[in-house]
């Protein structure tokens, strides 16, 4: 079930870029826009992986390290909702920055949040691996 969720969110993130007719003055920003869309897809994917790995590790006996998220982690639906909200809010914030012509800030926002989530994902993968190894 968890793998299906991660794959679904990843594929959705790759396909979710809106279709648009490119105007002549947008040509220099096409590469940056593609970067923004890729970062948005990565953001959704990282949040989905965090959800999957957290729930998997908790099922195996791990404990949520973030005290703010501890209560939310006990309810899988709540965790999915919070993680979807976090992904959506960072993507929407970067989209707003982009539309306000703060293109570098939009890309930087997602790059920074993705970097932090990548660190969390690596930690979760390590914990999950350790939990699975200890069960053998």
Overall description:
With 136 residues, the protein is mostly helical. The protein contains five helices and no strands. The protein has one domain. α2 (30-59) runs antiparallel to α4. The longest helix has 33 residues, at 103-135.
Number of strands: 0
Helical percent range? over 70%
Structural class: mainly alpha
The run of helices and strands is: HHHHH
Helix count, DSSP H or I runs of 4 or more residues? 5
Shape: elongated
Largest sheet: none
List keywords for this structure.
136 residues; mainly alpha; 0% strand
Summarize the structure.
The chain has 136 residues and is an all-alpha fold. The chain has helices at residues 2-15, 30-59, 70-73, 76-99, 103-135.
Show the helix and strand layout.
Layout: H1 2-15, H2 30-59, H3 70-73, H4 76-99, H5 103-135
Helix pairs in contact: 1-2, 2-4, 2-5, 4-5
């Amino acid at each position: 079930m968890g793998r299906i969720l991660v794959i679904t969110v990843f594929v959705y993130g790759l396909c979710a870029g809106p279709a648009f007719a490119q105007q002549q003055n947008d040509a220099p920003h096409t590469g940056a826009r593609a970067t923004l869309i890729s970062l948005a897809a990565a953001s959704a994917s990282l949040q989905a992986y965090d959800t999957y790995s957290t729930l998997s590790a908790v099922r195996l006996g791990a404990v949520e390290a973030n005290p703010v998220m501890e209560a939310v982690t006990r309810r899988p639906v709540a965790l999915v909702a919070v993680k979807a909200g976090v992904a959506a809010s960072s993507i929407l914030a970067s989209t707003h920055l982009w539309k306000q012509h703060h293109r570098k800030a939009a890309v930087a926002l997602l790059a920074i949040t993705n970097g932090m989530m990548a660190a969390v994902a690596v930690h979760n993968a390590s914990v999950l691996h350790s939990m699975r190894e200890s069960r053998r």
